[in-house]
Amino acid sequence: MSYKVALNFEDGVTRFINCNETDTVADASYRAGINIPLDCRDGACGACKLFCESGSFDGGSYIEDALSDDEAKEGYALACQMKPKTDLVLRVLAPASACKTAITTTKAVVTGVELLSPSTIGLNVTLANPLAFLPGQYVNIAVPGAGGQVRAYSFSSKPGDVAAGFLIRNIPNGLMSTWLTTQAKPGDELTLTGPSGSFFLREARRPLLLLAGGTGLAPMLSMLAEMAETAPGQPVHLIYGVTHDADLVEVEKIEAYGAKIAGFSWSACVASPESVYPNKGFVTQHIPDGALNGGDVDVYLCGPPPMVEAVRAHFQNIGVVPASFYYEKFAPTSAAPGKAA
To answer: Mean pLDDT throughout 280-298?
Structure first.
């Protein structure tokens, strides 16, 4: 039997390999042309130490100097000894370049561009081949006609499909925004480089709290799409915050995914004082006490830097330290040439 193993390198590059249940991760990696650092292959040096984010495995045999009992209990393993029992997500303690591998490039064709709100553009593409990525990860998309300049966007769609989607912030005079709103049409070709990023859905071992700000909803939709098919087995609560009423998008998708996820709940809030939406203010004002589960919770947060800092300060002020806290900040990039951002 073969399992899918995601290798997430410390520089954010992710590569996927297939590993037979009788093979070690190191052997499968080398077959795929990925040279995970190792010296001995006997479980004696510890050079190939990895951290298992998700999945189960047989750790094999090794000596204490290579991997301590405490490290093994935390989830560390040796690539030269571990054999998968399920699909795995592994954190490689080295950059991709040191392992003689690189980020991959994929071609895609635009199938649709929609202005979902004044602040949000929906981009849908068909990939040349199904792309494996971890729910929450992003790709760099080359802006057509911009001399190789790229912009990073998180998938809003489920991994493994040829159809992929993105939520893109509509920035006045923004390089990608301008191309999408004035030139893009079905059939246009795009070049995607990735996947990348350490912000992705891990195996659910406790309740999940998802906090999204604006187009930070994109990776959360990808996570929900995954959970709708592979039940997390834990309560999941999403809070989605925007600035204006018109900024609320993809509500139907949230509800559709949520209907398939046992124990799912969600709410939205609008920051503008002029809002007529029932929930006003910021996400920190709408986190139910039960959603934090006394700190025994995995928090996923994606939004602009002020939101991320506000949530971190909120947790500190109320004295809650989440068991796991994964976050990703995003900020507008440079505008089109010759124009102010």
So the answer is: 95
